[in-house]
């Protein structure tokens, strides 16, 4: 069972997070810290206490934007500890996902927190802690060369089979069916895969996925978006701009891709 520290400088949100964590039967204890200074003090005490000590912490559920030190700052400080607790970021901002991924977070949960999404983060943390040799984490060579670390632009996530793509977060590898992916969003040299259940960040440029998945019905609609043609629910034209609705998401279509997309959708509708 997990010993958890939740960190958020907004008291109502912290109390809500603690309530959800304490309701999970896999959580032995859940304590809160309302600022970075308090969080670091408690984490330092936990590390000094050791994994079996009375102050031990297994997982830190960490907000990112806080007064003073941010959650990312705390995570970078913890990376210097010999045996740091695992980190799950809980934030209202999607834009920090790449940094969180690089800091080896177990998960990245968006606010408002859904109970089932938080339960998935708890599952991932528990699964990772259950692995043998967790107490040796991080190993020196792995700390120097995060797995997998490749040259910029090279596609690091490898498809296990033609119908799946492997995604990693916090050392846990999951296999996502390509047919479950509604659209893909570029985030620098990374790509975020959006499914009905959530999203996954992979170290693959959008241009690479565009080339790989063209035969699977994925089309480029914008420099930032690649969409599964069959998942488009609506095509909208408004004052000279074009957009598509994919589930709950509305995505802009660039002028350069608008005509091709309309032609594809017409062929699909009449074919």
UniProtKB/TrEMBL annotation:
GO molecular function annotations of the record: DNA binding
Residue stretches of biased makeup (Basic and acidic residues): 133-142
Lineage, opening ranks: Bacteria, Bacillati, Actinomycetota, Actinomycetes, Kitasatosporales
Name of the featured protein: LytTR family DNA-binding domain-containing protein
Residue stretches making up the HTH LytTR-type domain: 165-267
Gene3D superfamilies in the cross-refs: 3.40.50.2300, LytTr DNA-binding domain
Keyword field contains Cell inner membrane: no
Domain of life: Bacteria
Listed InterPro entries: CheY-like_superfamily, LytR-like, LytTR_DNA-bd_dom, Sig_transdc_resp-reg_receiver
Keyword set includes Transmembrane helix: no
Domain Response regulatory, chain residue ranges per copy: 3-126
Keywords for the protein's UniProt record, in alphabetical order: DNA-binding, Phosphoprotein
Location of 4-aspartylphosphate modifications: 63
Sequence segments annotated as region (Disordered): 133-157
